[in-house]
C-alpha cells in the first residue's frame, strides 16, 4: 500500500497512527502542502479534493478521507481494534473523533487560515482564530470523555478518538492553546506519546520532516 | 427516543433522514440556532459542544455528532442499510459523507460565517466565502462519484452519502452555488427529493419551521 501524505498534515498523521497500530508497513509518497503539491494535476486524478491523505491499496483502489481510511483499516485488519464491539461505545468514540475532525481541524487548517490572511487579516488575528477554535473544541472533548476511564480517551487502549486527538494537540501547541488544565486529554496524550505506534507516526520521524 | 434539532441545521437534517429511512419515530426538541438556544446551560449538559443534533436514546444515553448517530442507527437497526457490507464500498461512501461533513459544512456554517461578519467582513464577502467553499467541495464530490451508477450517489438506494448531500445542496441553493452542471449530484438530489424519507425530513416539514 502507498500513503500519500505530508509530515505535518493532521489527517495524514491520523492514518499513519492507524497503520502503525495495525502493524501495516506502507510506501510513502510526500506532497508538500505549503508548496501546494496536493493541487498538482497528477495528484488530483487520485484525490479530486486535492487533500491529504490518500491511501492506494494493493488492488489499486484509492481511498480518501482519513476517518474513512481508518474505518476501512479497522474493518479489513480487525486487530487491534480502533473501535470496540458495542454500538454505544462505538458511537461515543466516533463522536469525539468527529468533534475533532469536523468541528476543530477544518476550521483551523492551512486552507482556512490562508483564506483569512488573504482577506487580509493580520497574523495575530489569524493565530487568535485558530487558538480560539482549538481551545473551545478541546474543552468540549474533555467534557465528552469526563467520568470515563483512562489513560487513553476510552480506556486502556488507544481508539479512533486518540488518533484524532494527538495531531490536534500538536496544532494546539503550535498555536499556543495549552491543554494543561484538561486532565483527561492531557493523560491521553501522555499515554499516546509513550506508545510505539504513536511515536513512529509522529511528524518529526517522517521522511519529509523539516 | 428524542432528537434535539433545528429545522435548518444541516447536521440535524442528516439524522432526520436516517431516522425516517429506518422508520423510527422520535420526539423532537427544538433549539433555535440563530437565537443561540444550543448554548443554553441545560442543553450544554446534554451536548458539551453546544451543537445540534443530539439523540437521547430510550436508555437515557445521549449521542452527539450526526455521522456517529447515523452509524449507530445503522448498527442497531440494520435495515434498510445506510452502508453496504463490502469494506471498500463502505470506505467510498464514508469518504463522500466526510468530504461534506468535514470539508464543506464546517467551513460555511452559521458559527464560521458569524465569526467572519464579526471581523467585520462585508456581507457580500461572507456570502462569497460560503459559495466558494460549497461549490469547490461539491465539484470534488461529483468527481468522487464519477463513473458510478445512479440515481443515488452510490446506486439504486440512498446511503450515508446521500443524507449528507441533500442538506449541503440546501445550503448551496441558499448561497447561490448552483449544481446544475454536476450531473451525478443533480440526479441524486432529484432521486432523494422524490423519496418519502427525504420528503418527511425536509426543513419545511418540521415543527419549528419558519
Describe the structure.
Two copies of one chain form a homodimer. Chain A is of the alpha+beta class and 210 residues long. In chain A, 54% of the residues lie in helices and 7% in strands. Chain A folds into two domains: 2-80, Glutaredoxin (3-Layer(aba) Sandwich), CATH 3.40.30.10; 87-197, Glutathione S-transferase Yfyf (Class Pi), Chain A, domain 2 (Up-down Bundle). The first copy, chain A, has ten helices and four strands; from the N terminus they run βαβαββαααααααα. In chain A, strands 2-1-3-4 form a four-stranded mixed sheet, with helices on one face. Chains A and B meet through α3, α4, α5 and α7 of A and α3, α4, α5 and α7 of B. Chains A, B: Residues 86-210 form the GST C-terminal domain. Chains A, B: Its EC number is 5.2.1.2. Chains A, B: It is an enzyme of class 5 (isomerase).
How is the quaternary structure best described? homodimer
CATH topology of the largest domain in chain A: Glutathione S-transferase Yfyf (Class Pi), Chain A, domain 2
What fraction strand of chain A?
A: 5-15%
Fraction of helical residues of chain A: 40-55%
CATH class of the largest domain in chain A: Mainly Alpha
Do you know the CATH architecture of the largest domain in chain A? Answer: Up-down Bundle
Uncertain runs of chain A are none
Termini Cα gap of chain A: 24 Å
* Molecular shape of chain A: globular
Number of helices of chain A: 10
**Sheet of most strands of chain A:** 4 strands, mixed
Number of domains of chain A: 2
